[in-house]
Specification:
- By secondary structure, the protein is of the alpha/beta class.
- It has helices spanning 3-10, 12-24, 33-45, 101-117, 140-146, 206-224, 262-282, 302-315, 333-339, 372-388, and strands at residues 50-53, 57-63, 68-74, 125-131, 157-168, 172-174, 177-180, 182-191, 195-196, 231-239, 246-247, 250-259, 286-292, 298-300, 321-323, 342-350.
- Strands 1-2-4-3-5-16-6-15 form an 8-stranded mixed sheet, with helices on both faces. A 4-stranded antiparallel sheet has the order 10-12-8-13, covered by helices on one side.
- Helix 1 packs across helix 10, helix 2 (12-24) runs antiparallel to helix 4 (101-117) and helix 6 packs antiparallel against helix 7.
- The protein starts with a helix and ends with a helix.
- The protein binds zinc ion (2 copies).
Length: 389
């Protein structure tokens, strides 16, 4: 067995204890005070110096020298009521680690232990980034970077990982280039003029405007995006009215725009605003459109990804390394990847006796914990091999 897998296996009990503690005590984005205190306590016990950033974020350093590699874990939970049925379920009503950030944090703490034990032979600095607020705009990554997480020293590369319930436990998935999308939030209010449903000629019906608009919006992706590129525009919520015989004054809609191409993203946002206003005005109404720009698309650096994949192949059987199919999800690791070469990989956490598992952000989401020591070994392997290369 690989030496790092062996060490990680020896730390498995601590790792799972950390993960379960965090799982039972989840905290929402940007208020992860107890989580931050727990991380800092663990780092102190390991004699690893750290500094606080972005209030609940923590940056720690192991080793010394000119070269530096960064490892990142996110620490926040989601506003979901847990229904997983695990014995260590959330103690906080309506808050759940349903995206596995508890596991990311616990794996980085285990990697910290392994790296600290090898500190004298690292040949450089490993920077550990425990980042708050991944699930909420503007994204903790952007704040951590603004407050200097990537300075002093500047890492030559950053690695991050995410648990992935669609792959069997312990498998590692990689993809160079585009991995996740820019995710923008869309808000519409369509104003008409309400009235008696039997006298539509005396009203401006915002529901008919909304129906037309939803159809028109489909043509933005289908007619303005290069077919070899990717984009999604989904209207995800529509609210109006309360009676059979009343035409309401207004319709509220929510949606999301996902894209990989930044130029197309801007043109699509322009078109969404234009279409919405023009169409509403042509029907005698009006439309307020608000676009909240989310995280940029996540691009993995080709060289960093080839390197991480190579480290994985040194660590686990070849059949446990897979090609990850890019998703139009959003992930604020993208901010690090914009700043320095980066690779974000996926760690399978689906139990071996199951063909499918509840997805991320699902109240039934569970993690096969036997995968976690591999994630910890992979984090330390990527850093150690990089500093030796
Ligand atoms: Zn998430
Ligand atoms: Zn996540």
């Amino acid at each position: 067995m690989n030496e790092l897998i062996q060490s990680a296996k020896e730390l498995e009990q601590d790792l799972i204890r950390d993960r379960r503690h965090l799982h039972q005590n989840p905290e929402l984005s940007f208020v992860e005070h107890e989580t931050a205190a727990y991380i800092r306590e663990r780092l102190t016990a390991m004699d690893i110096p750290f500094r606080a950033l972005a209030d609940t974020g923590t940056v720690a350093h192991i080793g010394s020298g000119d070269r530096c590699v960064a490892l990142r874990a996110d620490i926040d939970a989601l506003p979901i009521h847990e229904e997983s049925g695990v014995e260590f379920a959330s103690r906080r009503d309506g808050v759940m680690h349903a995206c596995g950030h508890d596991a990311h944090t616990a794996m980085l703490l285990a990697a910290a232990r392994m790296l600290k034990d090898r500190e004298s032979s690292l040949g450089g600095v490993v920077k550990l980034i425990f980042q708050p607020g991944e699930e909420k705009l503007p994204g903790g990554a952007s704040i951590m970077i603004r407050e200097g997480a990537l300075l002093d020293p500047v890492p030559e590369v950053i690695f991050g990982q995410h648990v992935y319930p669609d792959a069997p436990a312990g498998q590692l998935g990689f993809v160079p280039g585009a991995m996740m999308a820019a995710a923008d939030e869309l808000y519409w209010t369509i104003h008409g003029r309400g009235g008696h449903a039997a006298q539509p000629h005396q009203t401006v019906d915002p529901i008919v405007i909304a129906a037309n608009l939803i159809n028109q919006l489909q043509s933005i992706v289908s007619r303005t995006l290069n077919p070899f590129d990717s984009g999604v525009l989904s209207v995800t919520s529509i609210h109006a009215g309360h009676a059979n015989n009343v035409i309401p004054d207004a319709v509220e809609m929510l949606g999301t725009l996902r894209s990989l191409n930044l130029e197309w993203r801007e043109s699509a946002i322009n078109k969404i605003e234009q279409f919405s206003r023009t169409l509403a005005e042509a029907a005698g109404g009006s439309c307020d459109v608000r676009v909240v720009r989310g995280y940029p698309p996540l691009f993995n650096n080709d060289e960093a990804t080839a390197f991480a994949r190579g480290a994985a192949l040194n660590l686990v059987e070849k059949s446990h390394v897979f090609d990850f199919e890019p998703k139009m999800w959003g992930e604020d690791f993208a901010y690090y990847a914009q700043a320095i070469p980066a690779c974000f990989w996926m760690l399978g956490v689906r139990a071996h006796d199951r063909d499918s598992a509840p997805g991320l952000h699902n109240s039934h989401f569970v993690i096969e914990e036997s995968a976690l020591h591999r994630g910890a070994a992979m984090m330390s392997a990527a850093a150690i091999q990089r500093l030796r290369s």
